[in-house]
Structure formats: structure tokens, C-alpha cells
Write a structure and sequence with these properties.
Strand order of the largest sheet: 1-14-15-19-18-17
CATH topology of the largest domain: Beta-lactamase
CATH architecture of the largest domain: 3-Layer(aba) Sandwich
Strand content: 25-35%
Distance between the termini: 52 Å
Mean pLDDT: 91
Structural class: alpha+beta
CATH superfamily of the largest domain: DD-peptidase/beta-lactamase superfamily
Number of strands: 19
Radius of gyration: 37 Å
Oligomer: single chain
Number of helices: 10
Length: about 400
């Protein structure tokens, strides 16, 4: 009779222990099955891009020269004199841009009428006496703004450059003041003008400053259109021809000749390179003759053309990293697309890859990117998972609790 309470106590303790064990096991299974997996870092295996040496550039052996490609700010090539040299009639590009800032003219428009008078006739006679480039003018002649600009940029008439400046600013002095401020504001610190035509040898610039001037000229749609014309017809004057005889050769489509003591050329060219078009601008200053200058520019443009190459950065599907899980799965990180660029042969190419840490992932999941830097240009290629990283399942979780995150 006295053993009955003891048996009941033992029975109750057994039930409690069983329940506790079951509850503990349930808790363990629940916590283990639902615990997050430790993230897996990728092993990066992207290959470096091989750089190429600088290509040869056929710079003239006289004066100074510079050339650059628009959109390729790392490609700025220079040779010879770096100091200020005579601008000559390249001054007229400055005159045109400064006037168009004050008196804008859209492409295709004629603009207002400009009436020429006795002052213009006197300046025409002055330039005739000083063997300058001129076109005839008479008291009462009226030309449109566009016709006047054509006479300045194509025929390179000194007298019309002066007349244009006075029409826009009221006097030569007012134009000169505005022009030099404009030059400073637009990043040409070594360029200075004292008059609008280029007849004065004190109008000077450097070959590098002229690259900036060339870019500004092409950025103005009206100027770009005018300097590409081989000829035109002007009211009362008749047919005029562009003094730049290289137009249409080697892709050259501008910009302005300049002749005083030496022969200069500020030029632009569109280089057709497969499916790409590269616009280059350059300056050649100090040639002893027009023939020498033109031959030098042709060789320079051709050598710059040869200096560009299509460069494959990476192919689609290239393995750039690998994920290996502690439960034995493996999947590669691959480039989602290929990438190639048209690059200057001497441009350095660097790459940097960033890949996410993963726990699980489905095929084609975006896991990172590669950033290629070519000079100052950046090309980004997405990276995706080529394969699948599955959850390892409950059994693996139950038997490997130490590999789970708390």
C-alpha cells in the first residue's frame, strides 16, 4: 500500500522526461531546419586585360602639332613647339564663334541682312594694300549673316572678318575685349587676339589650346556646317571656294587654314573604323608651304586612324568566379554579355570585379559586375550565376548545426 504513491511519482517523472525530450528535439529540429545558411563567397578568377604599346604617330618635323579624338579624353597627342605661335587666319574661327554667341544663327537660316558702307570699303582697300586675303565690297552692298560668315570662313576674307566683328560689337576694340574674355572663359589661356582677321602676328595660340577651339567649333552646328562646305555663292561676289583644299580627303571635314609667315591648319576628320566613327581634331602650325602642310596633315590623320583598334574585353559566358558550398554544391559566376570597344592602342585597360556573397541562388541570378576602365571611359558587364545553389535540406542541417548561422 505504501508503494503506490512512489510508483505514481516515478511514472509522472518518466512522462515529464519524455515530454521534455520531445519538446527539446522538436525545438532543435525547428531551429536547425529554419536557421539561415552561412553565406558563400566567390573565388574570383577573372583574367587581366593585356595592354598594348603606344602606336607610332606621324607628326610633322617642323613647328608644333597636336591631335585628339573626341570622346577619348585620354588620347591627347602633341609634338614640337608647345609655346604660342602665330594664329594667322585661324583667328577667324574665334571671330565667328564670338560673333555667333552675340548673334546666334541656326543651321539653314540666313540670318539678318548686313549693310556695308564706306568704312568697310576703306578696310577692303587697306587689306588689298597689305596683300591680305580679301573679297570685294562696295557702299550699299547687303549680305545675309550667313553669306558674310561664308566669306569669312571659306574665302578667308580679312576685310569681311573685320566688318562682321564691327557689325556684332560696334567696334574692333569692343570685339577684342569680348574675344579675349571668351577665350579665357573657354579654357584657352595661351590664346590672345588683337584683331579679328589674323593679319596681325600678335594673334597667337598654342597647338593644345587649338584643340579646345576645334571642339567648340564642331559643337556649334552652324560652324560645323559652314567649314565643311567646299564652295558657295555669295550675292554680288559670286562663287567662293574654301581655302582648305584637304576637304573630302582622308575623312577631313574642316576647319580652317591660316597663313602669315607660316602655313597652319586647324582640322577635323571623321574616321570610319568598321562600325565605329571617330571624330578627331588637330592643329599643325609652322609649315613652310601649303603643300608641305597638307601632306603632313594627311600623314598625321592616317597614322591616327591606324592607332585605333577594336579590342575585345570579355566574351559572354566567361567564367569569372566560382561558388563552392560547404554542403558540396558548385556554380560558376559568368559574364551575362560580351564587351568590346574601339580603343587607342596605347590606352591602358584595367578591370575590377565585385561579386555578391550567396546562400542559395537560381540560374541567371545577377551576382555582380565587372567594370572595365579604358582611359577615362568605363564599360560595365553584368555577371550572373551559371547553375544553381540549392538549400542542402533538413537532414544536412540537422547533422551540421555548427555550419549554420545562429
Amino acid at each position: 500500500m505504501t508503494s503506490t504513491p512512489r510508483r505514481r511519482l516515478l511514472s509522472g517523472l518518466g512522462v515529464f522526461s519524455l515530454v521534455t525530450a520531445l519538446l527539446g528535439a522538436g525545438t532543435y529540429v525547428s531551429l536547425t531546419a529554419l536557421a539561415p545558411l552561412a553565406p558563400v563567397a566567390a573565388q574570383v578568377i577573372v583574367a587581366p586585360v593585356v595592354d598594348t604599346p603606344d602606336p607610332p604617330v606621324a607628326f610633322p618635323g617642323y613647328g608644333g602639332s597636336a591631335v585628339t579624338a573626341i570622346g577619348y579624353p585620354d588620347v591627347v597627342l602633341t609634338s614640337g613647339s608647345e609655346g604660342p605661335m602665330q594664329l594667322a587666319s585661324i583667328t577667324k574661327v574665334i571671330t565667328t564663334l564670338v560673333v555667333l554667341e552675340a548673334k546666334p544663327l541656326a543651321t539653314g537660316e540666313s540670318g539678318p541682312s548686313i549693310r556695308f558702307g564706306s568704312w568697310d570699303v576703306a578696310r577692303y582697300r587697306y587689306h588689298l594694300d597689305h596683300n591680305g586675303s580679301t573679297e570685294p565690297v562696295w557702299n550699299g552692298l547687303q549680305l545675309t549673316q550667313r553669306e558674310t560668315l561664308e566669306t569669312v570662313l571659306l574665302s578667308s576674307a580679312n576685310n569681311y572678318a573685320e566688318s562682321l566683328a564691327v557689325w556684332a560689337f560696334g567696334s574692333i576694340d569692343a570685339f577684342v575685349a569680348r574675344a579675349n574674355t571668351w577665350l579665357a572663359d573657354n579654357g584657352m589661356p595661351s590664346t590672345h587676339v588683337v584683331e579679328p582677321s589674323g593679319l596681325d602676328a600678335r594673334n597667337v595660340s598654342t597647338t593644345v589650346d587649338l584643340l579646345t577651339l576645334a571642339r567648340l567649333a564642331l559643337a556649334n552646328a552652324t560652324v560645323a556646317e559652314l567649314v565643311a562646305q567646299t564652295d558657295s555663292r555669295v550675292t554680288g561676289i559670286g562663287a567662293i571656294e574654301n581655302s582648305n583644299r584637304l576637304l573630302g580627303r582622308d575623312g577631313i571635314n574642316g576647319i580652317k587654314t591660316g597663313t602669315l609667315d607660316y602655313h597652319n591648319l586647324l582640322f577635323s576628320a571623321d574616321l570610319e573604323l568598321g562600325e565605329h566613327t571617330v571624330t578627331i581634331v588637330g592643329s599643325v602650325m609652322g609649315a613652310i608651304s601649303r603643300e608641305v602642310r597638307d601632306a603632313s596633315v594627311s600623314l598625321l590623320v592616317q597614322s591616327v586612324r591606324d592607332g585605333f583598334e577594336p579590342r575585345e574585353l570579355v566574351r559572354a559566358g566567361t567564367v569569372v568566379g566560382t561558388y563552392e558550398t560547404v554542403w558540396g554544391q558548385r556554380a560558376d559566376a559568368v559574364t551575362a554579355t560580351g564587351a568590346s570597344v574601339l580603343a587607342w592602342k596605347g590606352s591602358d585597360v584595367t578591370s575590377a570585379i565585385v561579386l555578391d556573397d550567396l546562400q542559395i541562388g537560381e540560374p541567371r541570378r545577377l551576382v555582380g559586375q565587372i567594370e572595365y576602365r579604358i582611359g577615362q571611359r568605363i564599360v560595365t558587364v553584368p555577371v550572373v550565376l551559371d547553375g544553381e545553389l540549392d538549400d542542402p535540406g533538413v537532414w544536412w542541417r540537422l547533422t551540421n548545426p555548427e555550419l549554420l548561422l545562429p
